[in-house]
Amino acid sequence: MPPMLNDAQEISEKQFRTREGRVYNLKTREVAVAELLPFLKKETVLNLCRQCPNFDQLWSCPPVAPDFEKFSAGYEKAGMFLFWAATGQFAEAENPSIACYEFLKKKNRRHMLKLEKEKTGQAVFSFSCDLCSKCGKKEGKPCKKPEKIRFNLTAFGFNIDDLSKVLMNHPISWSTDKDEAQYITQLSILLSEQFAEKE
User: Fold this and answer.
1) Residue 62 backbone phi and psi in degrees, to 5
2) Which of 48, 69, 120, 181 is least surrounded by Cβ atoms within 10 Å, i.e. has the fewest?
């Protein structure tokens, strides 16, 4: 499990339990947008994205995703929202890691869109846009829901592993050919001058 935080760190954490008994955690902190920029590794991440089936197939993914520095212009602050949950809760699933990922994604999306309205901000997700069953990009057509599309940190070129470890004190657990990840992590941010929620 991720390490416990000491009082000196400006990170807060809450735990939530669903009616079905699933447990997930949410770590939050606020940072200056400038603190995020050292974790932009555009060329390195872009080369990794080229191996993904979504590359140049979604309007939310590289190489058409906007430049983060231009996208975040006008915002000086960002709230960081790190969702994580143990995969062991989904042991009955065929693929516990994917089941846990999809569970977190629903919680993540709902939370971030709610905050976006409350704080008059701009959410950046940790997962690719999946609003349409087939993205218009694949057919050479414009985005069907431009007002609802949200980009993700990887598409901008962020090294999520380092971003999570350094700014959130949260090492990511990865699946291997032999073992499932111990827990799934999703990191989203909210660009807003009203800033992130207070715990």
Assistant:
1) -60, 155
2) 120
If one counts the domains in the chain, the total is: 1
Q: Is residue 183 part of a domain?
A: yes
- Residue 186: its H or E element: strand 183-191
Residue with tokens 């060329």: 43
- 7 lies in some domain: no
Cα separations (Å) of 170 from 28, 91, 153, 154, 167?
A: 11, 23, 16, 17, 8
pLDDT in tens, 117-175: 999 899 999 998 999 999 999 889 999 999 999 999 999 999 999 999 999 999 999 88
CA distance 195 to 31: 9
Identify whether 198 is part of a domain.
no
